[in-house]
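Inputs:
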Amino acid sequence: MSLKPGPGGAISVESPEVVTALLRRHGIDPAVRYLAVAVNGAVVRRSDWASYVAQAGDIVEVVRPFQGG
Amino acid sequence: MSDDLLTIAGRSFASRLLIGTAGYPNQQTMLDAVALSGAEIVTASIRRISLDPYSESMVDLLGDRYRILPNTAGCATVKDAILTAELGREALETNWIKLEIIGDRETLYPDAVQLLAATEELVKLGFIVLPYCNDDLVTCLKLADLGAAAVMPLGSPIGSGRGIANPIAIEQIVRRSPVPVILDAGIGTASDAALAMELGCGAVLLNTAVAKADNPRLMARAMRAAVEAGRLAYRAGRIPQKRHAEASSPQLGLIGS
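Outputs:
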């Protein structure tokens, strides 16, 4: 599981894949609370993760809330 | 004080202290300090997750007990701020957002032009927008006009601990703002927080002053007491300042005269 804030970049999609599968392949449990996903700068709602297919070349952001002021 | 609630966008809070969760020496100190502060609203950033091994986020520990207010800290453009707000809304199931758009990396001063544009857009998108802004009356009034639920002028630069650099400006904003004024940024110690409340601010948002204090738990208690004391003093109505002394004891019946 990978839930610390990361300096790394967004995920670049190499071949078409639904969001849930893409998350799992990157070691992220899609059931984890407080997770949010954006594809190409647009939020994909959690309820759509199982059906939304990210296309090759898409940029996927995976975020969570962390400490902040 | 259940008779004196802070109301933002129709939600009421007994505490007038909002506290940040960043920069504490360790997680337990953060949790204790947040609890001791009495805050009901705590702030969080929205960040990419890493590929490192599992580590709890503050939200796993605080999310069920506090209203988590996501911020757009670090954003420098309207576009990034809006996406961050939308991600925060999705992650936390809240439409509240602390809007922060930094215009200068050295001073971390807000970019007023982009702040206004982002506020307008986020309000249209259904957000309850709490913008972090300069201590500028005109900017604050425009933000309120655009639908900001509160305005959050800085006391002095973020993390500087220099207190309220321009109390007269804060007082003017309080007097004219149709929405609650939350003093955000610059608080260094308890007297700064008390002053903000004495000037009439609805609340204080702080982080570094507690997180980086020698004893964050004690400072959290100090801030809680200061905010409460300052609020009481504001409601009580202070005496005017005078140029000369004015004896408080009776002037008649003096012995030896």
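Remarks. The radius of gyration of chain B is 20 Å. The domain at 6-49+56-236 of chain B is CATH 3.20.20.70 (TIM Barrel).
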